[in-house]
Write a structure and sequence with these properties.
The complex is a heterodimer of chains A (107) and B (135). Chain A has 107 residues and is an alpha+beta fold. Chain A is built from 6 helices and 3 strands; from the N terminus they run H-H-E-H-H-E-E-H-H. The longest helix of chain A is centred in the C-terminal third of the chain and has 23 residues. Chain B is an alpha+beta fold. Chain B has one domain: Alpha-D-Glucose-1,6-Bisphosphate, Chain A, domain 4 (2-Layer Sandwich), CATH 3.30.530.20. The longest helix of chain B is centred in the C-terminal third of the chain and has 16 residues. Chain B has a 7-stranded antiparallel beta sheet. The chains are: A alpha+beta (107), B alpha+beta (135). Chains A and B meet through helix 1, helix 2 and helix 6 of A and strand 1, helix 1, helix 2, strand 7 and helix 3 of B.
Amino acid sequence: MIETRDLLFRALADPTRRALFERLCEAGEQSVGALTAPSGISQPAVSKHLAVLRQAGLVAGRHAGRQSYYRAQPAALAPLVDWTGRMTRFWEARFDDLDDVLKRMDQ
Amino acid sequence: MTDGAATRTVIVEREFAHPPEKVWRALTRPELVAEWLMAGDVAPTLGHRFAFGADWGHVDCEVIEVEPERTLAYSWDGKGLESVVTWTLTPTAAGTRLRMEQTGFQPDQKFAYHGAKAGWPRFLGALDDLLARID
């Protein structure tokens, strides 16, 4: 699980990759060519970024003829979205243990 | 539990039937802290650096705010997380209200995540909207 999050964080730490991912979320499936045009970088560079996003599970690709198409897999973001939920559960449990310690300190 | 686009914040608050002086000890003495949080050389000294260790890993901490029996704050940097944990003690009729606030992913370079800096908070802020639209 930690490794999954690391891959996600690394994939999204780059602004170009974030922009590509957000574009796919908003515009739906796109060809690499269509993604390249507004990105301001070369098609091989776009392909490299897409490979990193794919490794993190954030996008899925398919080939059709000579083109590759990519679509967003937003469910992969769940480990990030749920950060506050997980940390809240962690601290709630620590508070329970703290209560026990405070009671023992009286004795 | 989140306070919007700039940061992500977790707040846990509880009232304990014990005076602030005692809760403060439980927060600042390593042998007591180890019993409910994690093992580490914590001390209520500004600038003090230490690490909390657990079987799953460790977090690096530096004390950044101390007001005895009132406030204790330290950075809380672990794998995949850079944040600040602030403890606030408020005396009540029954004992002490203890508030833990953990804030991470701040736009400040000091709290930047893997060098992502200002892009992160904007992105995380947009995330909820994005997910809502997709669902």
